[in-house]
Amino acid sequence: MFLDFYRLREQPFGVSPDPRYLYFNPGHREALASLFYGIETGRGFLALIAEPGMGKTSLLFQLLERLKGSIRSAFLFQTQCESRELLRYLMEALGIDSRENDLVQLHGRLNEFLLGEASAGHRVVIFIDEAQNLSDSALETVRLLSNFEASDRKLFQIVLSGQPELSRRLKNPRLAQLSQRIAVLTGLKRLTSSETSQYIHHRLEIAGYDGPEVFTSAAVALIADGSRGIPRNINNICFNAMSVACAMGSKKIGPNIVQEALNDLSLDCLVEKSRFVGPLTPRITASSRFSLGWLRDKVLANRTFQTAVLSALLGSLATYLGAHTGTGLVHSSPAATLVSESAVQPSSALPGTQGNASSYTNRAIGAARFYTYVVQPNDTLGNLCIWSLGRYDETALAELRKLNPDLINPDRIEVGQQIRLPMPPSN
Questions:
Q1: How far apart are CA 361 and CA 7, in angstroms?
Q2: CA 246 to each of CA 23, 259, 262, 302, 334: distance values in angstroms, whole numbers, following the listed order
Q3: What secondary structure letter does DSSP report for 283?
Q4: Cβ-Cβ contacts under 8 Å for 95 (sequence gap 6 or more)
Q5: Residue pLDDT, tens place only, 198-233
Q6: Could you report the per-residue pLDDT of 23-35, keeping only the tens digit for each?
């Protein structure tokens, strides 16, 4: 959505574990070096343990890139399985026929394959991702795989990657034989505030961005705090913040926009909103949720923004009326007008005096109860009601009809049509 706006070649904050985007802070460098050295020296079992979203899979893909051409590898993602299934997944990943049901014959075929690879001078490395999901019996099978060895070396090595639950599992006395075989154990730490800034800059640069800093220092500090230094969280916050900024036409992202993105990602916020949604609530599709026009006006309807703009507008109006004895006229933006037309139209009974100008301004404040919204693609009257009033029922429709006497058919609104919406109450 914002690639052209920021002149990016590709999405900088995607969800796929692309090794090109891996940011090497000291912790990541140390983990990668430990795993690389462990494989190069044939240590057998290795383990990488870190919180969700820290980039474990990206790190393993980077390790594979560095080992490309020197090893025969298999990457297992299916870890919610039992022993026999795990063995079959492993054999299929290595290109070995696993249709045989007899476990002894399966082991025989795997051993034959490993001996052949060893004779050809090939090293075999098995990567098991999300290893914390393996059952105890499957973990015991993993341990037994270490028995495949020649007289002078292991026939293959295993890298277990998982969340902190894997560490707790390995402390279980029943898995002591497996934990004792892990020769290299490493992990990943959360990013600091300065590392978060470097992480964001790195990903934007890889995606092709060449310009001034997109995020202000205050915005980065808020991202670091809101993400708790977890790269996946940073990606989600930055993606949403850039989407909001693009909709607003802003190439500089400050803390207000980041806070808007954090609010959109808050599950607590969604739960709170669900309490006010009645049975008549229409389903808002993903396309309408992320429509540029819908998002732009959502930001414009932010209460903080409304208050600031309304105060500035009314202050300018008072100054204007106090300095002139003629009529005053305010030209509104075609996208959104934050005060009612009646609040700014000249009055025939308005004397051209300073005192009455203040009285007129007070009346303008009382009248500023709606703003004009331009209908965007995928908008419905239902989602506009929920957006501005927090509900969609007969009372809400009656309020909209009162503001829009020309709205004859509420089931049909046109793109580009101007509709008056109630101003949300201030907090």
A1: 45
A2: 25, 15, 16, 16, 19
A3: P
A4: none
A5: 999 999 999 999 989 999 999 999 999 999 999 999
A6: 988 999 999 999 9
In this structure, what token pair is assigned to residue 103?
């476990």
- Prediction pTM value: 0.61
Q: 276-287 burial by CB neighbour count: b if 16+ within 10 A, else e?
A: eeeeebeebeee
Question: How does 150-159 read in b/e, with b if 16+ C-beta sit within 10 Å?
Answer: eeeebbbbbb
3 state SS for 160-195: EEECHHHHHHHCCHHHHHHHHHEEEEEECCCCCHHH
The whole-angstrom separation of Cα 46 and Cα 197 is 31
Which one of 2.40.160.10, 3.40.109.10, 3.40.50.300, 3.40.50.1820 gives the CATH number of domain 24-187? Answer: 3.40.50.300
* 3-15+191-265: CATH number: 1.10.8.60
DSSP 13: T
The region, left, alpha or beta by phi > 0 then psi within -120 to 50, assigned to residue 316 is: alpha
Sort 72 into a burial class: Cβ within 10 Å, 0-12 / 13-18 / 19+. middle
Residues 6+ apart with CB under 8 A from 174: 136
Q: How far apart are CA 125 and CA 59, in angstroms?
A: 15
Outline where 20-74 has alpha helix (H): 26-40, 56-67
